[in-house]
Amino acid sequence: MNYSKDAPEFVVSPKDAREFVVKCMQTVGTSPDHAGQLADLLLDADLVGHYSHGLNRLHIYVDDVKNGVKGNGVPKVLKQKGGTAWVDGENLLGAVVGNFCTDLAIKLAKEFGVAWVVTKNSNHYGACQHYTKKIANAGMVGMSFTNTSPLMFPCRSSEIGLGTNPLSCCVNSEKTGDSFLLDMATTTVALGKVELADCRGKTQIPSTWGADSKGNPSTDTQVVLHGGGLLPLGGIEETGSYKGTGLSMMGELFCGILAGSSFGKNVRLWGQSHKAADNGQCFVAIDPECFAPGFAPRLQQFLDETRNLKPISEEKPVLVPGDPERMNTEYSQKAGGLVYQEGQIKALEELATKCDVQMFSYKRLK
């Protein structure tokens, strides 16, 4: 699980949580439709255990709309040729822009076999997998990339210069409910994971997660969150941080540079709102029927053979990308709703007071 098993847990009805998100967003002028799209994005992340991108982020979206992000409108297609499209997100919520581009990619891939859609002028769009799962459920291979505010110290750098620039790839296999689902930051962890550790009272984190203000590895959550930053996937050069740096730059190529948005250290700093975020994002849909027949059975064989490899420890079986998310989903379903820890509940109660919205009800799980 992505949280401490010893901490008190509380169960929340998904319906109540969704209504809470919509009401909070409406207090700053977001349309019900756009607020609903954001709610679905955040609750999907919490359901699969990506708490760093769920309700933990709601206060940021509230502040974004309060400070200029548009709570209503439609993205604009600037250019479309064959299976490609260039979109202007019109400074709308990232969830709205992401859904628009995803739907467009699916439509184009159905016609052309492969679609590549990029957007500029977007905002934080949550967990990448929200969009790639939608493409996968349309029977295709889905990929998505986004750039982010600069938070990473690139390999050998004493300055922050790249974002976490996450990416996702998802495709459904032969068995119902099974899939390959990769969703990862190009830093060792996303910033939200450090924030959650701090929220849950943890003062120490692994040395590969973050760094102090000069790029030196640090295990202190406060040092990382206040003046420090994140390390690339791989941690330090000796353990492969140049690979995380390269992946982040590749994402920037697909997003910021290809889409004509802000890129690299030019993206708005995290937590600032004096200018538009102008995030760049990329959405890819591939119809496997355009290639060798028997794709789904081969994928299923690949997933099963990988899972069946002999583990180092019998207590920890080999997993494939997407298995942890399925395990978290099953845990939530058995609990009867979305599961949150005490620190998260308290933070949401503070937001409810700030927005003058009634807090959703919850019950103690353990």
Automatic annotation (TrEMBL):
Gene3D superfamilies: 1.10.1530.10, Hypothetical oxidoreductase yiak, domain 2
KW Oxidoreductase (keyword) present: yes
Single Gene Ontology MF annotation: oxidoreductase activity
Keywords, in A-Z order: Oxidoreductase
Positions in coiled-coil regions: none
Superkingdom, natural source: Eukaryota
Pfam families linked: Ldh_2 (PF02615)
Protein name listed in UniProt: Malate dehydrogenase
Species this protein is from: Meloidogyne incognita
